[in-house]
Design goal:
The complex is a heterodimer of chains A (about 280) and B (about 375). Chain A is α/β, with parallel strands linked by helices. Chain A has helices at about 10-25, 50-55, 75-90, 135-145, 150-160, 265-275; strands at about 35, 65-70, 90, 100-105, 120, 175, 180, 200-205, 210-215, 220, 250-255, 260-265. Chain A has two domains: about 10-130 and about 170-220, Rossmann fold, CATH 3.40.50; about 235-280, no CATH class. Chain A has a seven-stranded mixed β-sheet. In chain A, helix 1 (about 10-25) crosses helix 2 (about 50-55). The model of chain A has no long low-confidence stretch (mean pLDDT about 95). Chain B is of the alpha+beta class and about 375 residues long. Chain B folds into two domains: about 20-80; about 95-120 and about 150-335, no CATH class. Chain B has 13 helices and four strands. Chain B has helices at about 10-25, 35-40, 40-50, 55-65, 70-80, 155-160, 180, 195-205, 210-220, 290-310, 325-330, 330-340, 345-360; strands at about 100-105, 230-240, 250-265, 275-285. Chain B has a four-stranded antiparallel β-sheet with strand order 1-2-3-4. In chain B, strand 2 and strand 3 (about 250-265) form a beta hairpin. In chain B, helix 8 (about 195-205) runs antiparallel to helix 10 (about 290-310). Chain B is globular and about 75 Å long. Chain B starts with 7 loop residues before the first helix and ends in a 13-residue tail after the last helix. The chains are: A alpha/beta (about 280), B alpha+beta (about 375). At the A-B interface, helix 3, strand 11 and strand 12 of A face helix 1, helix 4, helix 5, helix 12 and helix 13 of B.
C-alpha cells in the first residue's frame, strides 16, 4: 500500500469542482452552493470545509496564515498549518498584512484586510435558519421566497424577553440585500468587518457540503430593527498586554477567586500593538 | 503583567508522540500484525470495510491497528484513504444469486429451494466466556461431513414476485437504467428528496449502531404497526466483474464477502394497489447481519414516507420514518467529528455569551485593569 498525495492533498479534479462551486457562490453572494465535499484526513468539525477551500485556491507562492479563536498558536490552527506545510510545502506567516490567504475559525483579524487577500471561514452550520427550521427542503423554499420573517420574529422575541437582541455570535446578516447568511460563529463584534470588505470572503462547510461567499465590496447588513439597532459588545477595561480598547477581548481567569484580566483575542494584533506602544 | 499562553505547537508534537507510545502498549507483549487482525478479527474488519466504503482488507487491518481497535476511528482512516483513490470504472452489478453462500436463512418458509444453510453464526452459541485452551476447530463436530455449498441459489424475493405477492417490486432488483452509475454519494452532496440509490448507499456506509437503534425503534412501534418478516438473509462470496475499456471484454477483478437481506411486511390494499408484501433491502460488505437487517427495515420505512409524499401526507411521525433525519445523521465519520469538535477551543463564542450574561447584571468577580 504505497500512497502519494497531490499538491495540497486534494486531486486536481476535486479542486476544479470546488473552484466551480466557489465561482457560483461569488456570483450569488450569500447563497449556499452544495458541493461534492470530500473526506479529509482531519475530522469533520475541525474545519474540513475551510481546508478544502484553502486546498483548492492555494498556490506555491501563497503566504498562509491560520487562526483559531483569533490566535495563531491554538492547537487546531497549528494542526491545519502542519497539514499545508506537509502537503503543499507552503510558506506560513502570522502577519495579517503580508498573508495572501487566511483561514480562520470564529474570528476576523483586527488588522483590516486588503484587496487581493482571501479569507476562508470554517463553518459548522451554514444554514442561518437551521435552529428555526431544521428541514433542508423547507429552508430552501424560505430562501427562495426571501421569507425571512421567522428570523425577525426570533430577534423580536429576544427584545420582548431581555430588552435587547440576545444573539452574541453567529449573528445573522443579509448579503447584497438578498440572502440571509450565517457569518459562521464569529462574535457579532466582527460582523461590521464583513461589510464592503476589500478581501474575498469564502465560507466552507465540509460536513454539510456547502460553500458560500461574499465578493469584495459587497453590502453586508446585520439584522436589526429601527428602534433596536445592531449593537456591538463592549468591555469595561483594556487589554492587559497591549492596552488596546479597540479589539475583541477574552477574559482570562487568573486565580481561584475568579479574578479576571482582559486580553486581545487576536494574538498577532496584540503583539504588534504591544510592540508599538511599549518599545 | 499577564503573559499570553503559548505552546500549542509543542503540545501537539508531544501528544502525537504519546499516541504512538500508547498504541504500542507494553513492549514486553509481542506486537500484533495486520495479518493477525485480518484473520482473527474478521468481523471487526468487515465492519470497517463496510462503513469505510472500501473493500480493502489490508487497509482496514492496518487502520484497526493504528486506531488501537477503535473501529469508528479505523473507519475514518479508511475513508480518508479511499477519498484519494482514483475511480477507474464501474463494475457490472453483482448478481447475488450467483454468490457462494456460506450462510442463508429465511424466516418465512420452512424449506426454501436451495435449503437453509446455518453456517458460522453466534446465534446458537451460549455466550459464556471460554476459559482454558481454545477449542480444537476439527474436534467436537457432528459425525456427518458438512454438505458442499451450492454455487447458485434462487432469491426468496423472486419466489414471492412469481407468486404475485409483492405489492411493488423494488427498484434495487430492477435498477433504474443509467441512474445507478451516475449517482455516487461520495462525489455529490446528499440533497432531499433523495433517490433510492443514494438512500441505499448512505445506509450501506452508515453507522451500525445508529441504524440498529433506529430499526429497533421501528419495531417498538415508533414507525411500524406490524411485525416485519425476514424474507432472506444470505452471507457469501461474490465475484466482481469489470470490462476495462482498453480490453473490451469482461474480466473478474476479485471476490468480496457480502451480506444481503430482504425484509417483507404486509401491505393492505390501498391507494389503488392490491394487498401483498412490501420489501426492504440491505446489502453490506462482509458478514454483518445486524447491519444488513437494520438497513432493510429502514429502507422499507423510508420508502413508505416517499410513497406517502405522493399522497400528500408527507409528515413522518417518527424519526425512523424521516429520510432527512436518518440519512443526515447515520454517518459515523460526520457525527463523530461534529460531536467531538466541542473539544476545540470556543473561547471567543463563550466570551460573547459572557458579555451578554454580565450585561444582564450577573457580575460578581472583580476585573483587573491594564496594569493588573
Amino acid at each position: 500500500m504505497t500512497v502519494s498525495y497531490n499538491f495540497a492533498y486534494l486531486d486536481e479534479q476535486s479542486k476544479k469542482m470546488i473552484r466551480r462551486a466557489i465561482l457560483k457562490a461569488l456570483a450569488i453572494p450569500g447563497f449556499q452552493v452544495p458541493f461534492g465535499g470530500r473526506e479529509m484526513p482531519l475530522p469533520y468539525g475541525w474545519g474540513t470545509g475551510g481546508i478544502q477551500l484553502t486546498a483548492s485556491v492555494i498556490g506555491p507562492d501563497d503566504q498562509l496564515k491560520v487562526i483559531d479563536q483569533g490566535s495563531d498558536d491554538t492547537v487546531n490552527a497549528i494542526s491545519i498549518k502542519h497539514f499545508f506545510q506537509k502537503t503543499a510545502g507552503i510558506a506560513i506567516t502570522e502577519d495579517t498584512e503580508t498573508a495572501t490567504l487566511i483561514q480562520t475559525r470564529h474570528r476576523i483579524p483586527e488588522t483590516p484586510l486588503k484587496k487581493g487577500q482571501i479569507l476562508v471561514f470554517q463553518v459548522p452550520i451554514p444554514e442561518p435558519l437551521q435552529f428555526i427550521e431544521p428541514k433542508r427542503p423547507q429552508t430552501l423554499k424560505m430562501h427562495g421566497y426571501e421569507e425571512y420573517g421567522s428570523m425577525h420574529v426570533k430577534l423580536y422575541e429576544d427584545i420582548a424577553r431581555f430588552g435587547r437582541i440576545a444573539t452574541a455570535f453567529d449573528y445573522p446578516v443579509r448579503v447584497h440585500h438578498r440572502y440571509l447568511m450565517s457569518p459562521s460563529p464569529i462574535p457579532k463584534y466582527d460582523n461590521p468587518k464583513l461589510h464592503r470588505s476589500p478581501a474575498v470572503l469564502l465560507f466552507g462547510a465540509g460536513r454539510e457540503k456547502r460553500i458560500y461567499a461574499i465578493p469584495p465590496y459587497t453590502d453586508v447588513v446585520s439584522l436589526d430593527f429601527e428602534d433596536y439597532p445592531f449593537e456591538l459588545e463592549h468591555w469595561e477595561g483594556a487589554c492587559a498586554v497591549c492596552g488596546s480598547t479597540q479589539s475583541f477581548l477574552d477574559e482570562i481567569i487568573t486565580d481561584d477567586n475568579g479574578t479576571r484580566v482582559l486580553i486581545c483575542s487576536d494574538t498577532e494584533f496584540c503583539r504588534k500593538n504591544a510592540g508599538s506602544s511599549q518599545p | 503583567m499577564y503573559v499570553a499562553v503559548k505552546g500549542g505547537e509543542k503540545a501537539v508534537k508531544h501528544s502525537q508522540r504519546l499516541v504512538t507510545k500508547k498504541r504500542r502498549g507494553d513492549t514486553r507483549v509481542p506486537e500484533i500484525s495486520p495479518d493477525q487482525i485480518k484473520h482473527q478479527l474478521g468481523l471487526g474488519l468487515d465492519r470497517v470495510m463496510a462503513e469505510g466504503s472500501l473493500y480493502d482488507e489490508t487497509a482496514a487491518a492496518k487502520a484497526i491497528q493504528q486506531a488501537q481497535g477503535d473501529l469508528t476511528e479505523a473507519v475514518f482512516l479508511v475513508r480518508a484513504f479511499r477519498t484519494t483513490l482514483k475511480r477507474f470504472g464501474t463494475s457490472r452489478p453483482v448478481d447475488t444469486t450467483e454468490m457462494t453462500a456460506f450462510r442463508r436463512v429465511s424466516g418465512i418458509y420452512k424449506d426454501i429451494p436451495g435449503g437453509q444453510i446455518l453456517g458460522p453464526t453466534y446465534d446458537y452459541t451460549h455466550r459464556l466466556i471460554e476459559t482454558g485452551p481454545a477449542p480444537d476447530e476439527n474436534g467436537t463436530g457432528p459425525d456427518q461431513p458438512m454438505p458442499s455449498l451450492p454455487d447458485k441459489l434462487p432469491r426468496v424475493m423472486d419466489l414471492l414476485i412469481k407468486q404475485g405477492l409483492i405489492s411493488d417490486a423494488p427498484s434495487a432488483l430492477s435498477p433504474e437504467p443509467g441512474r445507478e452509475t451516475e449517482e455516487d454519494l461520495t462525489r455529490q452532496p446528499l440533497t432531499f428528496p433523495v433517490s433510492r440509490t443514494l438512500r441505499l448507499q448512505a445506509l450501506a456506509r452508515g453507522d451500525e449502531g445508529f441504524l440498529l437503534g433506529s430499526a429497533y425503534s421501528l419495531q417498538r412501534g415508533f414507525g411500524l404497526d406490524r411485525h416485519p418478516f425476514l424474507g432472506e438473509l444470505k452471507v457469501g462470496v461474490a465475484t466482481v466483474c469489470f470490462t476495462p475499456p482498453e480490453l473490451g471484454f469482461e474480466i473478474r477483478i476479485g471476490r468480496i464477502r457480502l451480506t444481503e437481506c430482504v425484509m417483507v411486511s404486509r401491505q393492505d390494499d390501498a391507494h389503488g394497489r392490491a394487498a401483498g408484501f412490501d420489501t426492504g433491502y440491505g446489502l453490506v460488505f462482509g458478514q454483518n447481519e445486524r447491519k444488513a437487517m437494520s438497513m432493510s427495515l429502514l429502507d422499507r420505512s423510508l420508502s413508505d414516507t416517499d410513497k406517502n409524499a405522493d399522497a400528500d401526507t408527507d409528515k413522518a411521525a417518527y424519526p425512523a420514518q424521516d429520510p432527512e433525519f436518518i440519512l443526515s445523521h447515520c454517518d459515523s465519520v460526520e457525527s463523530s467529528g461534529f460531536v467531538q469538535h466541542l473539544k476545540l477551543p470556543h473561547y471567543v463564542d463563550f466570551q460573547s455569551e459572557l458579555v451578554f450574561i454580565r450585561s444582564r447584571g450577573n457580575d460578581q468577580a472583580p476585573t483587573k485593569g491594564e496594569d493588573g
